[in-house]
Protein 1
Amino acid sequence: MIAPLRKAFGWLANQPYLLLSLSSLFWAGNIVLGRAVAGHIPPATLSCVRWAGALLLMLPVAWPHLRRDWRKLRAHWRLMVLLSATGFAVNNVLSYWGLQYTQALNALLLQSSGPLFVALWSLLLFGVRLTFTQALGIALSLLGVLTIILRGDFGALAQVEFNRGDLMIAGALFAFGLYSAIMPKRPATHPLSLVTVGTAGGALLLLPLAALEFAAGARPSADWITAASLAYVMIFPSVLAYLCFNRGVALIGPNRSAPFLHLMPVFGSVMAIVLLGEKPELFHLAGYAMVIAGVFIAARR
């Protein structure tokens, strides 16, 4: 039983397109959930408990690798703090904060700019420019995202109003773009070691904010919605999504990985059709086709 599982995981670990698609699927669910529990669970508390819980889940499995890799990780402690801050703490808490104030349409529109932030940081830090095919793929997938979100009516774009929540989500994307750009510079360690240290750093950095929320009287509701929400965010958009994303970036690089972020609105709209009973329309199919084509073009060598 163990040998087939090990073989399956070994195969999956070398499939960057599938890994990056899975990370976008899990993060799409996180956006839907973050909006659904706005006002039910305080954002900093949700972020802190998310990473603390993910740490507890991973630590027993990651411990042997962590002990072996600890010297390398400690030697790169500045980089690890930066990865924890941008990819785990700042990105996460700003997203949850932003979803307290903005609509899902605005959040999805802003999420579609994620690959541009990755490209910007890659250019500023390392002089890595987008190739023509990468730029073409990002533009095509972005057009597909807008087609889905605006339901084929691009005139609706002029009616979208932005607020402080949108600025927070833009800040989250700015931070995650930096995380994606510097990921290839990470120390050569086991993936579990890297994500475990990232979750620990994220939880520690968010602890003061969660304490301030608690002192101000903002407490999560003690019910099944809170329990189910915390279970989801600890496992899928935390442990699994980051393992998949980090491995995908390691295999094909940040600029080729970034267009997969455009799959998040695609998965979000599919969730709405399947879970909420929304009727699929022609613009869904057109948008899906453009996003998938754009991702395929941009991810090629």
Note: The two ends are 36 Å apart (CA to CA).
Protein 2
Amino acid sequence: MTDHSTDHPATTPPDVHDRLGHAIKRAEQALIAEKTRVLRTVDLTVPQYVALLVLQQSSGSSGAQLARACMVTPQTMTTVLANLEAKGLITRETSSVHQKVLVARLTRTGRALTKKADALARGVEQRLADALDPAERAQLRALLERATAALRGTD
């Protein structure tokens, strides 16, 4: 019986902490954790905040449109919208275009809370921005865009 274990030099895979995907995920988790912490003070989750923010800019969006804009599944958005409606932050009504589609709009309370929540979330993002100089921010943004394009096969 021949031992082939020495036919190829042993290669040690990189430590998981050295992998680029792991570094990106750690940064994303740190950002979401901090946004979660600050948004908890106004009784919102990050997905609820993002939905409110999108509705602030695109009032009258359907659940499917919001799910795409917020990068969540339609099922998740259904739950998010139900919770926002229960809190009195949005209303949902039948679309004028399609009777089976509900569209969401911010209430006055929802608009006020979105403004407050956005200030909190922007504070978190500002802390991140402040850790980099303007050239580094531009470079990071460009590198992230390139990474996204590469992964989508559009580079």
Note: Residues 3 and 9 are 13 Å apart (CA to CA).
Protein 3
Amino acid sequence: MTEKCPHTAYDPAREGAEMSFKDRMSYGDYLQIDTILNAQHLRTGAHDEMLFIIQHQTSELWMRLALHELDAARRAIAGDRLRESFKMLSRVARIFEQLNSAWDVLRTMTPSDYTTFRDGLGQSSGFQSWQYRLIEYAVGNRNAAMLRPHEHRPDLLALLQAELARPSLYDEALRHLARAGLPVPEAVLSRDLAQPWAADAGVQAVWETVYRAPETHWEAYELAEKLVDFEDYFRRWRFNHVTTVERVIGFKRGTGGTAGVSYLRRMLEVELFPELWHLRTTL
């Protein structure tokens, strides 16, 4: 009979893996895992409150990355480095794909589940997310009325006001087209940046020029499609938000006092880059 060799447990240290982290930076140290995993402070004993908190916390982390990428993309466009911006804009679209997937998890929570902890939310609401508001301001949906939920935080109010004073992503795209010799209307280039964007026939005509001869304006054409790609995912995120809220609370008012589903449905009508959508009909 052949004698069997005793089982030997695999030891990564034999292949050079670091196993001792006394006075050294570990994975958890670098990522601040303890801080993240201790940031879920449940206010009720409801089982699904943990799901609700983590879904929104992870969404805020993805939004932080989206802001990081949008800011870099905007600076690249302002510097006429369009190819550099394309990677960042593609990444932002995929970030919103991840945010869309998060609704699938939240939708496993039923109306009965939500009622077990809803009162514990007080007046807090996603409507008050300053990062979401900053994303909207950064890409061009600028409504100064939405500053009010942040007036209790002077630091956040200043951050949002500073964003309103900057050219949006779309403004920078149009300024790039003008520098490239395309006839962007002067009134658009010199507009009050804090004001909401309004669809402009002259801007649509410029984009139509790009789309009618993409081989001549290839980088501008690709920029346009990156913007449309982002807005496509952004619209899906808004739609999934509406569907999830209706599925969980029906037409009740939101915890933050908004009209809930009715308010969110109005947001579905907002177009970030209207000319890029409208030209599809006229081409």
Note: The domain at 46-282 is CATH 1.20.58.480 (Methane Monooxygenase Hydroxylase; Chain G, domain 1).
Protein 4
Amino acid sequence: MQDVLKQQYDFIRSTRQTLFAFLEGIPLQKLHNTVPNFGNSSIIRTHIHVADCYLGWLGKFALKLTDCSFATDYDIENSDVKKVRDRFELVDEVVQQFLLEFNSRWFENLANQVKWQEEPWITTPLWLLTHTETHEFHHKGQIVSMARQLGYTPPDTDLVEPEIKI
């Protein structure tokens, strides 16, 4: 199953690269503009939030890594697409570690503290991976919608043509 989940994540990374290439063509100031109706957020802030979700759930919660810090307001305000790419390189490393660590243990209960309740929260590695990946696609849709509102036409970031091996 690990190979399937790794391949699935590789598809997700491929769509992410398409989004990064598109965002590199938008002026940095526009990437930091607050876009109405999107939680008073910007494209950069939203994209960093996605990375932080992976780092928080897979890195801190599941793997109990202490070096997965969330981006500060300063980090966000001083980010560009390259810095967001760099943050996602860290995400890629954490996801690979997560896939190795929980290989064949996808339904094992994991417990750890969350900020919204006193008692530890319990879930499974498969739920955490599914949540972070679907969370990314939810916000990717918001990011391309924000770009449209700013006057840019995004490429198709939903479908990745798989390599067909004959």
Note: The chain is about 60% helix and 5% strand.
